[in-house]
Design brief:
- It is a single chain.
- It contains 20 helices and five strands.
- The protein is of the alpha/beta class and 471 residues long.
- The termini are far apart.
- The protein has three domains: 121 residues, Rossmann fold (3-Layer(aba) Sandwich); 117 residues, Alpha Horseshoe (Serine Threonine Protein Phosphatase 5, Tetratricopeptide repeat); 174 residues, DNA Cyclobutane Dipyrimidine Photolyase, subunit A, domain 3, CATH 1.10.579.10.
- Helices cover 46% and strands 6% of the residues.
- Flavin-adenine dinucleotide binds next to helix 9, helix 11, helix 14 and helix 16.
């Protein structure tokens, strides 16, 4: 090892020091400039939403602390920034962990080519996928389109996810003198919407690790069933930590395996959800067009309704359907929505309001702290029925029966729609069916302090079915 060599470690969505192959290997080479570039040259549609930027700010601050204040921050076009740093500092190697979203693949390919052409050694690694998408193909060498064979045959039978990298010694790091201050990345925006997120989240690598071990102790043992109930604590809430790479899927996979017997149905189910994340990344990798277009082309003819008023009522949680409103308010309040409720609110937008899934996806992109191109696009298309291996078009979530079944005590719904807290549970999910006295006793006047339903469930369902059946 030549201790005189100078390398750049370019952090992206891998904001951790544990199990970080590019960081580990760069530190083995000698001196390292660790840096993060906020890429403001991306197309508008790929720019981070406000909630994600809030998370990123705190995650970068945390990483900087763990790197002994040696992380350098930049804003601009990554190629220009890297080239200028290389020139000024006599850098020999550049290391990064690969991103798998099409816009980043395209960008990073160009960067790699240019750096290689100027004699720089570029080393890239997989830090975010249990199975790299290009390695998983069917026997006929085409990509899988259905989850179960992808996961069972393509992934599990192919090879086990690798073990984790050791924690590197954090030494030999140097700061670039031309960097900017984290506050100049302007990630916290001008409004104070994000301030409330401080109440709900503890960002950063150590907090991600603590959350995982807490989930293994308290949530995992009833994950398969409990994950359906938004008022229960059976899901991990690791999604933003995973998205920003504060914890690797490999660490999670290995810790979960250590935690209990591998035949355990809860462990299996949890791992298969990580498998769904892999599948989303895989779909986006092999079918990059799904970023904006329907995976199933027949949906291109869908006569979506353009109604800004209905869209706004959905965004604000004022649809008159309590579990939908609870979900949309949870999103606004916390930057997160429980998975069961994500399915209910998205189905409602697409199949009852008949509004294009892309508009719902955009709102989630803006408001979710775990907003992830692959998971968000693939999940919205799954719900709409336009995706690969999607929910069949006739599967329309009924927000009344879903509420009764999955929030049986009403605790989740009442938390986010407090104006209904005194309403008898029998009518909590269908307040328009309660008689006048019942509503009055609960302090509710429909249309005044809680909305009347903005759409009729039965007729909107029938309309959706009719359109879908003609596609
Ligand atoms: C309309 C819609 C939009 C979504 N948008 C996103 C998004 O932008 N970002 C995002 O990370 N997830 C998204 N999901 C998937 C899922 O809802 C979240 O990953 C999950 O709710 C995160 O909570 P958790 O960490 O407690 O999950 P857990 O149940 O604890 O699962 C552990 C991890 O597995 C992965 N995972 C779990 N469920 C899914 C799933 N259905 N698809 C893909 N990966 C999954 C996530 O990385 C998650 O953190 C979306 C789902 C729907 C229906």
């Amino acid at each position: 090892m030549s201790k005189n060599k100078l390398s750049i470690m370019w952090f992206k969505e891998d904001l951790r020091i544990n199990d970080n192959p590019a960081l580990f290997n760069s530190l083995n080479e000698g001196l390292v400039i660790p840096l993060y570039i906020f890429d403001n040259s991306l197309k508008e549609e790929y720019k981070m939403g406000e909630a994600s930027k809030w998370w990123l700010h705190h995650s970068l601050s945390d990483l900087n602390k763990n790197l002994n204040d040696k992380l350098s921050f930049f804003m601009g076009n990554p190629l220009n920034i890297l080239e200028s740093l290389i020139d000024k500092n006599n850098v020999e190697n550049v290391f990064w962990n690969r991103s798998y979203e099409p816009c980043f693949i395209e960008r990073d390919k160009i960067i790699k080519k240019k750096l290689l052409a100027s004699g720089i050694i570029v080393k890239t690694y997989n830090a975010s996928l249990l199975w790299e998408s290009h390695e998983i193909l069917k026997e006929d060498k085409t990509p899988y389109r259905v989850f179960t064979p992808f996961y069972r045959k393509g992934c599990l039978k192919n090879k086990s996810p690798r073990s984790v990298y050791n924690k590197p010694k954090i030494e030999n790091l140097i700061c670039s003198r031309t960097d900017t201050n984290i506050s100049e990345l302007c990630l916290l925006g001008n409004n104070n919407w994000h301030l409330k997120f401080n109440k709900h989240w503890k960002v950063g690598e150590i907090n991600a690790q603590k959350k995982l071990s807490n989930f293994i102790k308290t949530g995992l043992s009833d994950y398969k069933n409990g994950r359906n109930y938004p008022a229960k604590n059976n899901v991990s809430k690791l999604s933003p930590h995973i998205h920003f790479g504060e914890i690797s899927p490999h660490t999670i996979w290995n810790e979960i395996n250590k935690s209990s017997d591998l035949e355990n149905k809860n462990v299996e189910h949890f791992k298969s959800e990580l498998g769904w994340r892999e599948f989303s990344k895989y779909l986006l990798f092999h079918f990059p067009e799904i970023i904006n277009s329907n995976f199933q082309k027949k949906f291109d003819n869908f006569p979506w309704i353009k109604d800004d008023n209905l869209l706004t009522l959905w965004k604000k949680g004022k649809t008159g359907y309590p579990i939908v409103d609870a979900g949309m308010r949870e999103l606004w309040e916390t930057g997160y929505v429980h998975n069961r409720v994500r399915m209910i609110v998205s189905s409602f937008l697409v199949k009852n309001l008949l509004i294009d899934w892309r508009l719902g996806e955009r709102w989630f992109w803006e408001c979710l702290v775990d907003a992830d191109q692959a998971n968000n696009k693939a999940s919205w298309q799954w719900v709409a029925g336009s995706g690969a291996d999607a929910a069949p078009y006739f599967r329309i979530f009924n927000p009344v029966t879903q509420g009764m079944k999955f929030d049986p005590d009403g605790n989740y719904t009442k938390k986010y729609v407090p104006e209904l807290r005194n309403l008898d549970i029998k009518y909590l999910f269908n307040p328009w069916e309660a008689d006048f006295d019942k509503l009055q006793n609960a302090g509710i006047t429909l249309g005044k302090n809680y909305p009347k339903p903005i759409v009729d469930l039965k007729s909107s369902r029938n309309k959706a079915l009719e359109i879908f059946s003609k596609l």
